[in-house]
Design brief:
Strand content of chain A: 25-35%
Largest interface: A-B, 29 and 27 residues
Distance between the termini of chain A: 19 Å
Structural class of chain B: alpha+beta
Number of strands of chain B: 22
Radius of gyration of chain A: 17 Å
Low-confidence stretches of chain B: none
Number of helices of chain B: 24
Structural class of chain A: alpha/beta
Helix content of chain B: 40-55%
CATH topology of chain A: Rossmann fold
Strand order of the largest sheet of chain A: 6-7-8-3-9-10
Radius of gyration of chain B: 34 Å
Oligomer: heterodimer
Order of helices and strands of chain A: EEEHEEHEHHHEHEHEE
Shape of chain A: globular
Number of helices of chain A: 7
Distance between the termini of chain B: 31 Å
């Protein structure tokens, strides 16, 4: 059993005995088993692992995008176990942000509208000004009316980051946020992510295979054979 | 090597489900087109057989003189049944009374088609009969006895022979010659004819040589006979012989062909959409194969073989299902149709197979060509899409194949060109209007789900327009078939309303006209007006003998060979329409003006202002054509080729004619009528009406079931069209869910999108269908009209159908974890 926790009070994210199995042609494949994790508010945690180690699967489970085979995830003090898809969406809407490797912007919406979307979903009052402010913060003022296809990869990821922070999330999940970017752009994006994280007092859970990027986090964990280990 | 690899890849594709939609669309399309083909082939043949009973044969050669050809041997060699008749008018007498009758001398094979009904006496139950009367006996219509004032036992004299009455004729299948054959009928045995000495050189006799049997052999015989026809000879088929049945059959055939055509067109749209999706999803495979060193040519071959094999399997499946569906329909319909359906032919299966493969080639080849041009760099930069092939290639190929198919299906190139051209123009029109509508609707503000839905439609203009156009065309085709069917059936039924005249009264003497009017009024019997009638022959056109002006084999010859029924009238009959010129005013009365039926005028090659000379015995009258009329011969009202202005024929002896409806329950009233007006001749056309009604009912029913298949093909298009955009929709919904959107919001957004897409398509469909109605109705001889209901129901039904199909296709995403969707549907 692996139990990884920091010392402080009410955790924002907790995984207990978390496991994930899938059925393959050769039989049942165990991707994760008995994962224990506690993340406290304001922390930044990197989860490292080789390709195929199950990093993204773990992220999906922690963020409530997927359902577990065993164990339990508690997000923002709410256990996700037994919740249906709608109930989990409600938990996400209330304080969870995402940054994906492949940006995942809606192609039909402009940069501004993409950032506006989570605000509109949560019925936020001053959505327009908040979204503009965020786009400015990620260095995209003047590009509000551009569609994703009119933006470079780095710019698209900036929009995605602005969108992730739009609903003022308590916790932000990032899946290889620089995976599709060149090193220079990647560096700028990481800087932006950590700056915003500090400024907005957000908890950050980052999945990556990039040791340099992981080193910028307060804690680093490694996924090996479906289990989490703390790195020195 | 390529084949093995292609088949191996195909097996994997099948397992992964990638080819399923394409194969399914193709199979459903072919099922629909085959079933329509099989079914209409059989029903059409059954209906034609039913209709041939009006001719008493499948084909008849009519001649003014004995044929020089050995037709009996020709028929025997071709395996056809054969019969001969001679027809002429003569006097029959009984104890000093004489009557002009129409004699038909028949042989033992009579009738080849249809049912001859006889009865022993007026009260007895009718029975069916085959063959000729026994020698020395004859069969007569009851009015022969009435006219001769004879009892059934009295001998009847024809020429120099004496006959006894064998039976009374109740219904004669091949009465033909329009609705009224004026003279009462006698049927005798052909072997008795020489003894009567009635037929001498120069006698006016019509010879009929009748054939029935296998359709192909009949067609061969027709092809053999046509070039050998001599002056005075012509081939008869049911269309010429009985215009009202012929017209109904012709329109039914066109409608059924049209339905088949539209089912095929819609199938093509479905396949094109499925092929587009298949191609788009194979960019990565193609790029990878290129990376692995495969040439463009080999990649093309690989995909083409896969498509061809899948297409062939789908085609075979489609044919089998079509065959089954057709049997199901026949089982369902057999009793309702009350006609024996001939076995199905192989042609629909072959047509179906050719159709399937041709459509696949035309619609799937252009996008497949794209796969060969995928850049291998795509494995690194996924946004690299292949270069689209020249649009002239895509559209040129699709349009030529479409028009070819339309022609193959209809065997009617005017319909094919009309539909082909209409579809091209319609598609362009729909795309343009669709774009305008999307822009217009895109500006309407609303809550979040509404805005998201609009954004989706508005921001994927190509996908939205493709869907709008495809759904618009499909809904238009469905609406068109539905509306045309309704109008056709209504039109057929309107020709034969319940109270359509079922009795004719002829030989009404001038002094009886007012008395008869009063009697009918008192008896509460509605009649169609009492019209004077006089028989005259057209002898000269513009001062020259008509026989010199009309070539012997021209259709106009019919107008001068026999006496025409002429009339005069102050008013234009309600079912007559002036096509050219003007109807007369009171100041024209007494002047030699005529109004000529438009088709006869065309056959005679005359027009307004031309002078026609008519002979009435030794009197001759020259008259000027003042107007041309079209009229409805199937209305069962007395109608005339030539009508004179009132007063111009005043001093010529004429009798009158009328028709009226009498319900069967008032049969005994006829006895009163005959007693009151003993010199009138009463004709009952009820049996003919019943035959007509049966044909109309069967044709209407067949139209309903053909419609069903058109609708099925249409729904396939909807599914294929939605499947095309479903990946994008699934991915976007998953993303929204990741951002915390609940299923209610996504459900609302998708519903709004589908409802809007359907409603806009429906609106465009209404426009296109209305335009189609105006164009097509010329072909179907229907009066075009504005269909308000179409404009209301098409958007509603469109919205409902697209919403239903869309919701069925997307419902599963609402219950699935978004991570799976984000992984599966990354592009």
């Amino acid at each position: 059993m692996t139990s990884l926790s920091s010392s402080s009070a009410t955790p924002i994210l907790r995984a207990r005995q978390l496991g994930k199995r899938v059925n393959a042609r050769s039989g049942t494949l165990t991707i994760l088993s008995g994962v224990e994790l506690v993340v406290n508010p304001g922390e930044s945690v990197a989860i490292l692992g080789a390709s195929g180690s199950g990093k993204s699967t773990l992220l999906g489970l922690l963020a409530g995008l997927d359902t577990e085979s065993d164990g339990e995830v508690e997000l923002n003090g709410i256990s996700l176990k037994g919740l249906n898809e709608d109930q989990r969406a409600e938990v996400r809407a209330d304080g969870v942000g995402f940054v994906f490797q492949s940006f995942q912007l809606l192609p039909a919406l402009t940069a501004l509208e993409n950032v506006l979307l989570p605000l509109e979903l949560s019925g936020y009052g001053a959505a327009q000004s908040q979204a503009s402010r965020l786009l400015q913060a990620v260095g995209l003022s003047g590009r509000e009316d551009h569609y994703p296809r009119q933006l470079s990869g780095g710019e698209q990821q900036r929009v995605a980051i602005a969108r992730a922070f739009a609903s003022q999330p308590k916790i932000l999940f990032a899946d290889e946020p620089t995976g599709n970017l060149d090193s220079h752009t990647g560096e700028a994006i990481i800087q932006l992510l950590f700056d915003l994280n500090r400024r907005e007092h957000t908890t950050l859970v980052l999945v990556t295979h990039d040791a340099q990027l992981a080193a910028r986090c307060q804690r680093r964990l490694q996924l090996v054979s479906g289990q989490l280990e703390t790195l020195a | 090597m390529t084949w093995t690899l292609a088949l191996r890849l195909l097996a994997r594709e099948w397992r992964s489900g990638e080819l399923r939609l394409l194969t399914l669309a193709l199979a459903i399309a072919i099922t629909a087109s085959c079933a329509v083909g099989f079914f209409t082939d059989r029903v059409e043949r059954a209906l034609l057989r039913q209709a041939t009973t009006f001719l008493g044969a499948d084909l008849a050669l009519q001649s003014a003189h004995p044929s020089q050809l050995d037709l009996r041997r020709q028929a025997r060699n071709a395996g056809l049944s054969y019969s001969e008749q001679q027809r002429f008018s003569t006097m029959v007498s009984a104890e000093g009374e004489t009557l002009l009758v129409s004699v038909k001398a028949v042989d033992s094979a009579y009738p080849l088609r249809g049912d001859l009904r006889l009865s022993r006496d007026i009260q007895a139950q009718p029975f069916s009969q085959r063959g000729a009367p026994a020698t020395g006996t004859l069969w007569a219509e009851p009015r022969v006895l009435q006219g001769l004032n004879a009892s059934p036992e009295q001998p009847l004299t024809l020429g120099i022979s004496q006959f006894t009455l064998g039976a009374l004729i109740v219904n004669e299948p091949d009465r033909g010659g329009g609705l009224i054959s004026l003279r009462p009928r006698l049927i005798i045995n052909l072997d008795d004819l020489p003894d009567t000495r009635l037929v001498q050189p120069g006698s006016r006799v019509t010879y009929r040589y009748l054939f029935s049997g296998d359709a192909a052999a009949i067609q061969q015989l027709r092809d053999w006979l046509t070039p050998q026809l001599r002056p005075g000879e012509r081939l008869l088929d049911v269309r010429q012989e009985n215009p009202s049945i012929g017209g109904t059959m012709e329109r039914a055939r066109r409608y059924i062909n049209l339905s088949g055509l539209l089912a095929v067109s819609m199938a093509a749209i479905a396949i094109a959409m499925a092929a587009r999706r298949y191609t788009r999803r194979h960019y990565d495979t193609a790029a990878l194969l290129r990376c692995l060193g495969q040439s463009q040519g080999r990649i093309m071959r690989l995909f083409c073989i896969q498509l061809l094999v899948a297409g062939t399997l789908a085609t075979l499946l489609g044919i089998a299902l079509g065959w089954l569906a057709q049997w199901g329909l026949v089982a369902l319909l057999g009793e309702l149709l009350q006609i024996e359906l001939p076995p199905g032919g192989w042609r629909p299966a072959l047509t179906g197979a050719a159709t399937g493969l041709l459509i696949l080639l035309a619609t799937a080849l252009p996008p497949l060509l794209q796969l060969a041009s995928v850049s291998p760099l795509r494995v690194l930069r996924r946004e690299l899409a292949p270069i689209a092939p020249a649009s002239t290639l895509i559209y040129g190929l699709a349009i030529s194949v479409a028009i070819g198919l339309l022609w193959l299906y209809s065997g009617d190139y005017s319909l094919a060109i009309l539909l082909g051209g209409g579809s091209v123009a319609g598609t362009a029109l729909l795309a343009g209007l669709g774009w305008l509508l999307l822009r217009l609707v895109g500006r309407i503000p609303g809550p979040l789900p509404w805005r998201l839905a609009l954004k989706n439609l508005y921001r994927h203009p190509r996908a939205s327009l493709t869907q709008l156009t495809a759904f618009g065309l499909t809904l238009a085709a469905m609406a068109l078939i539905l509306v045309v069917r309704t109008d056709l059936v209504r039109d057929w039924q309107a020709q034969l309303p319940e109270d359509a005249p079922n009795h004719f009264l002829i030989n009404i003497q001038p002094w009886e006209v007012d008395l008869l009017k009063d009697f009918l009024l008192q008896s509460d019997v509605r009649h169609s007006g009492i019209h004077p009638m006089i028989r005259g022959r057209l002898s000269h056109i513009n001062g020259k003998p008509a026989a010199e002006q009309i070539p012997p084999d021209a259709p106009g010859r019919r107008g001068i060979r026999r006496e025409l029924n002429l009339s005069w009238s102050a008013d234009l009959a309600p079912d007559n329409r002036i096509e050219a010129g003007r109807w007369w005013q009171p100041q024209d009365y007494g002047r030699p003006y005529i109004s000529l039926e438009a088709k006869l005028a065309k056959d005679l090659g005359v027009t307004l202002g031309d002078q026609l000379r008519f002979s009435f015995g030794d009197r001759q009258i020259d008259a000027e054509i003042l107007s041309l009329r079209s009229l409805d011969w199937s209305s069962l009202r007395p109608n005339f080729f030539v009508i004179f202005a009132p007063g111009s024929l005043a001093d010529l002896p004429a009798t009158s004619i009328t028709s009226f409806y009498l319900p069967a329950s008032r049969g005994p009233w006829l006895r009163q009528l005959v007693q009151q007006f003993p010199t009138l001749t009463l004709l009952e056309v009820a049996p003919l009406l019943e035959n007509l009604r049966a044909v109309v009912a069967q044709v209407s029913l067949a139209a309903e079931y053909v419609l069903f298949f058109v609708l099925a093909a249409g729904i396939t298009v909807l599914f294929a069209g939605l499947a095309n955009s479903i990946d994008e929709r699934l991915r976007e919904s998953a993303l929204l869910r990741t951002l915390g959107a609940g299923s209610t919001l996504i459900r609302r957004m998708l519903s709004i999108e589908f409802l809007l897409l359907g409603a806009l398509s429906g609106l465009l469909a209404a426009l296109l269908a209305q335009a189609g109605i105006f164009a097509l109705y010329q072909l179907l001889q229907l009066a075009p009209r504005f269909h308000l209901l179409l404009w209301i129901s098409a958007p509603l039904v469109g919205a409902l159908l697209v919403w239903l199909a869309g919701r069925l296709a997307t419902e599963r995403i609402l219950h699935q974890a978004p991570i799976a969707l984000l992984r599966d549907h990354q592009d």
